[in-house]
Design a protein that fits this description.
Elements: E1 2-7, H1 20-28, E2 34-39, H2 47-56, E3 61-65, H3 71-82, E4 88-91, H4 93-97, H5 99-102, E5 114-116, H6 123-132, E6 139-140, H7 175-182, E7 191-196, E8 199-200, H8 211-215, E9 220-221, H9 224-240, E10 244-249, H10 258-270, E11 276-280, H11 289-297, E12 300-308, H12 312-317, H13 328-336, E13 341-348, H14 357-365, E14 372-377, H15 385-392, H16 419-433, H17 436-444, H18 451-465, H19 474-483, H20 485-495, H21 516-527
Parallel strand pairs: 1-2, 1-3, 3-4, 4-5, 5-6, 7-10, 10-11, 11-12, 12-13, 13-14
Antiparallel strand pairs: 8-9
The structure holds cobalamin and iron/sulfur cluster.
Cobalamin binds near residues 19, 65, 121, 211 and 250.
Length: about 525
């Protein structure tokens, strides 16, 4: 049987990275079946397009996964597939919480023939075999022989065959430039950001988050060996096609068990499996200087930090009191001193937010090392404690907001400002943080660093701008480039200066920064 795994786009922004679930389910598919992958972010498709694809490729089963904000599109695509007579199975966080909606048991139309609840590592092979026999069940739940919910331990993790997977659709280098760039130096003919997980689960239970409910509060880890081997295989793939590969460790909190994270990073260094990587780590765990040393030495470049708010009262309300705004600056300086920078994520529209929250937040951001601030609105996702609290208080203005996805629009009334004021705060956050002046200031703040760092922050800011400002078409890019011409001209001019690209010491030598060799010695000693 031929199977299509499809992930919809949200119609507004493009993900820079493919979704792990597709590669994982592909690797877990029983032999004898062929799996094709289409990520709507890389290969945009509409309803007619997917129906045509299914017919042209003689597909026998379609699997669709989606987050809440993509679910309306996912349902439309599922309807189009089912109209061709091919069954659809849906999975992922949204349908796990809203299975009745997907199956048409809540009075609405049916969109899926079957729903896979929760983590589908163990149920997927069963789903495929049932579909091949034409005996799909409505619901597949991950339970053990006693009917108890069971979660994969991750100790036996499937090998994802990165060497042979067709990754063409996920190349971030524009097609026109690929041939030329493949000839330059180490090669930039391809550049991909690949999702890798090293563990699942988070015990923190922040009020707005789906993760603790979905993956559970006990954390499960892959073995270091299995992660290291995956990195080595990705490196080999990049080398073989004269390209570049970076990894996004998608764990919700990559350093949730610091001892284990340090041991993994030491093993990565010892095996020379370093790649440039990004990971999500909460600020409280970045107090540990040795951890930050190992992050830098193992290839860590960007750390995503869910700061959420600079107001401790908001953080307490969200059950995220472990975030201490007073230490944000020190954490970011600690990272920057090793040339690691942060993606700092903020949520506006929390109960203690008032008009001016954007400017207050930006005021802090401007005093920190340059990074990538991002701004969103508090969103009640189904089944989260936040959703339940707001529903009980009668504060939901669009209780089924996902049925009509509107980007950056609130679905409930904040307490101390209006919905419109909250929207204006997010607009202001993005407009100020990504203005040509802010980009120039971020680049200038790294004037004591080699050119590569300044180019890096500039390109990253340009790309991150695309999360909020529509940057889908060529004209949008031309406009942005014109607005930032002074900074671009300055960087290009410097590029022609001898030595501009050469390395320099880390930015703020807050503590001695160990070299890779030194870390390797530590790792070997630890092994011994
Ligand atoms: C990486 C990631 C991203 C990436 C993009 C996704 C990508 N390319 O991988 C980035 C950083 C861009 C991102 C952005 C956002 N994300 Co995000 N993201 C994640 C994260 C951390 C990991 C996803 C992952 O790969 N997990 C590991 C895989 C193995 O798990 P999985 O995807 O759930 O798949 C398993 C099962 O669900 C199931 N399954 C999934 N799909 C399917 C399909 C079928 C057919 C079957 C049978 C089974 C199945 O099987 C898999 C194996 O068990 C998750 C949290 C998490 N731990 O999952 C949040 C998460 C998915 N994100 C979330 C959110 C809210 C967002 C944003 C809206 C944040 C924001 N405010 O801007 C944006 C939206 C992006 C967009 N496109 O519009 C929420 C979604 C909740 C929800 N109900 O929708 C999550 C759960 C985190 C949270 N805080 O609650 N995200
Ligand atoms: S720390 Fe992150 S993953 Fe864990 S519950 Fe809070 S927001 Fe969710």
């Amino acid at each position: 049987m031929k199977i299509l795994l499809y992930n919809p786009d949200n119609g507004v922004t493009r993900n820079f990275m493919p979704h792990l679930w597709m590669f994982l389910l592909q690797a877990l598919t029983p032999s004898g079946h062929e799996v094709l992958l289409v990520d709507g972010n890389a290969q945009p498709m509409d309803e007619a397009g997917i129906a045509q694809f299914v017919r042209d490729n003689n597909i026998g089963l379609v699997g669709i996964g989606a987050m809440t904000r993509m679910i309306a599109k996912a349902y439309r695509m599922a309807d189009a597939v089912r109209a061709t007579g091919v069954p659809v199975v849906m999975g992922g966080p949204h349908v796990t919480e809203m299975a009745d909606e997907a199956l048409g048991r809540d009075g609405g139309p049916r969109h899926a023939d079957a729903v896979a609840l929760g983590e589908a590592d163990a149920t997927w092979p069963r789903i495929v075999e049932d579909a091949a026999r034409g005996q799909l069940k409505d619901v597949y739940a991950p339970v053990d022989a006693f009917g108890q919910e069971s979660k994969p331990s991750l100790k036996e993790y499937p090998v994802i065959p990165w060497q042979s997977i067709d990754l063409k659709q996920f190349n971030l280098v524009p097609k026109a430039a690929t041939a030329l760039l493949q000839k330059i130096g180490e090669g930039w003919g391809t550049f991909r950001i690949i999702p890798v997980e090293s563990g699942r689960g988070c015990p923190y239970g922040c009020e707005f988050c789906t993760v603790t409910g979905f993956f559970g509060d006990s954390i499960r880890f892959r073995t270091n060996e299995s992660v290291v081997n995956e990195l080595l295989s990705l490196k080999a793939r990049a080398r073989s096609e004269k390209g570049q590969m970076a990894v996004f460790f998608i764990d919700d909190n990559f350093a949730i068990n610091i001892k284990r994270t340090k041991s993994l990073l030491r093993d990565i260094i010892a095996a020379k499996a370093q790649v440039h990587w990004v990971a999500q780590i909460s600020a409280n765990l970045l107090r540990d200087g040795e951890l930050v040393d190992l992050i830098a030495a193992s290839g860590g470049k960007w750390i995503f930090i869910g700061m959420e708010s600079i107001d401790p009262a908001n953080l307490k309300d969200m059950n995220k009191g472990f975030n201490k705004p007073g230490e944000y600056a020190a954490v970011l300086e600690r990272l920057a001193s090793r040339n690691v920078y942060a993606i700092t994520s903020f949520i506006f529209g929390m109960d203690n937010d008032t008009v001016g929250v954007a400017e207050r937040t930006l005021g802090q951001v401007r005093t920190w090392p340059p990074g990538l601030p991002i701004f969103g609105l508090l969103t009640p996702l189904p089944a989260t404690p936040l959703y339940k609290r707001l529903e009980k208080a009668g504060r939901l203005t669009r209780p089924k907001h996902w049925q009509e996805f509107i980007p950056f629009a609130m679905a409930h009334t904040p307490l101390k400002m209006t919905i419109e004021e909250a929207h204006a705060e997010v607009d202001q956050g993005w407009a100020q943080a990504y203005s040509p002046e802010a980009l120039a200031a971020a680049v200038d703040s790294l004037n004591d660093q080699p050119l590569g760092y300044r180019v890096n922050i500039f390109l990253a800011r340009l790309c991150f701008r695309g999360i909020y400002f529509p940057m889908m078409g060529e004209m949008a890019w031309v406009k942005v480039i014109a607005q930032n011409r002074r900074t671009i001209f300055k960087l290009v001019k410097e590029g022609f200066t001898a030595g501009a690209w050469r390395g320099a010491p880390a930015r703020i030598p807050a503590s001695p920064v160990p070299q890779v060799e030194a870390i390797e010695t530590i790792a070997q000693a630890a092994e011994g």
